[in-house]
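Suppose you are handed a protein chain with no further information: no name, no annotation, nothing but its sequence. What can you learn? This example shows the usual starting point.
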Amino acid sequence: MYPLEMLPATLAHAVPAAVGALQLAAAHAAPTHNALQTIFNEVTSLGHQALRYLTIGLAGIIVWSLWLYRVILSAIAKPVVNDFRTTTSVVVPSYHEDPDILLRCLESWRSQHPDEIIIVLDVADVDAYQRIVAIGDPTVKPVLFHHVGKRSALGQGIRMARYDTVVLVDSDTSWEPGLLEAVQMPFIDPAVGGVGTQQNVYQRNSSLWRMIADWLVNLRYYNYVPAMGRAGAVPCLSGRTAAYRRTAILPVLDNLENEFFMGRRCIAGDDGRLTWLVLASGFKTVHQSNAKALSMFPASMRAFFKQRLRWSRNSYRTYLTAIAKGWVWRVPFVTKITVLQIILTPLTMGITIWYLVFSRLEISVVGAWFVLAWLLVGRMIRGLSDLKRHPLDFFILPILALVVIVIALPIKVYAFLTMNKQGWLTRHADRIGGDGQTASTLLPPAPPAPVREAPILTNDEAVTA
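A reasonable first move is to predict its three-dimensional structure. Written in C-alpha cells, the prediction is:
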C-alpha cells in the first residue's frame, strides 16, 4: 500500500492550531492584529506541510489508480467459449519428480484424452519410467533423456510433438475437469499463439506457506493476468500449464534453448522467455480463466523463499531483456505498466517503508498501531479477491503483509544484484522431489466412507419388503 492517506493525516496536525486561532479571534468583538497574524502563520505552515507531502501523495494516487484500472479490466474479462477443437500434444519435463505425485498428475491429464502425452524424464528417473510404462497406455510416451536444464527437456518434448496445440505442463501440476477443452477454444483466433490457465495451490490448507502462496496466486490470476489477457499480451504464461500453437513455438525453439544473459546460459525462466518470444513473433498471448490447474507449492518457509528468489531473478532477466530488445514498448499499455511495476517494486516499497519509519512513525504505542493498521488495511483491500473465496485467510493477514514486504525488499533486491546467478534452487540432482514438495508433505487422503451391508432377508421377509 502507498501513503496516499498520509496527506490528510499530515494536514490534521496543523488544522487544530488554525481552528484554535479562529476561535480566539471570534471571542473578541474586534480581532486584534496578533490574532490575524497567528491565523496567517498557521495557514502558511499548513501549505508548507502540504507541499512537503504532495509528491508522495501523487505517487499514491498513481499507484492505486493503476491497481484499480487493472482490477476493473480483470473483472470484466471473460473466457473464450466456443466449440473449437484441435489436436493436442501434452509435453511434460520431469526432473527427479516424486513418482507418486507424477502418477497422480498423469491420471488427471489422461482423463481428458489428449492425442499424446510426452513425458521427458531424466535418465536417472528409472522408477518413474517403469511405472508409467506399466500403465500400458499407448498415448503416454515416457522418454529417458539427459537433462541439461528444463529448457533442454522442453526442446526434446516439443520436437517430438506431432499435433497442432502443444500443452506444456509441470510434472507436479494436475488438471481440473475441462481444462484441455478450455485451452483449445482461444485458438479459433489465428492471431493467438499462447493460452494461459487459471492456477491455484494443490492442498492449500496443508501448510501455512501454501495458504500464503495461494493468496498471492489469487491476486495474480484474479486482479492482473485477466486484464493483460484481455489485451492479448500476458507477459508470462506460467509453465505450470500453458498451451501454444505448435507453429508459433517451433521457429523460436532454438532461442528458448540457447538464451544467454550477460554471457551466461540461462537455465530457469523458460516460461517467461517463451512467452516473450511468441509475443515478439507477432502473436497474442491470452488468459483462459475457465481452464483450471492445481500445482504443488513448497510446504516450508525456506523452500517458499527460495522459490520466490528464483522467480524474481527470472523476472529481472526476462523483463530487462524485453526492454533492451524493445519488445515491451510494442505491447498494450496494461502490460507495459505491469512489467515496469514489477521491475520497480523494491524502489516503490523502499520509499513507502522509508516514509513510514522516518516521516510518520511516532515512537509510541499509538504510532506503532497506526503503522500496523496502515499496512494491514492496504493489504486487505488488495487481497479482497482471495478473502472473498477464503474468508478465514483474514487471520493470516499480518503474516501475509510481512511476507509481501520481505519479498518486495530483501528478496527482490538480492535477486536484482544476483540476477545472473543461474540455478533451480528447489530441485537437486541427488534428491527425489522438490524442496518441501514431496508427497509426504501432503495431507493423507480421506478414508473411504463406510459401506453399510444390506441385511440378509429370508424368503418371507423379502416378500413382505
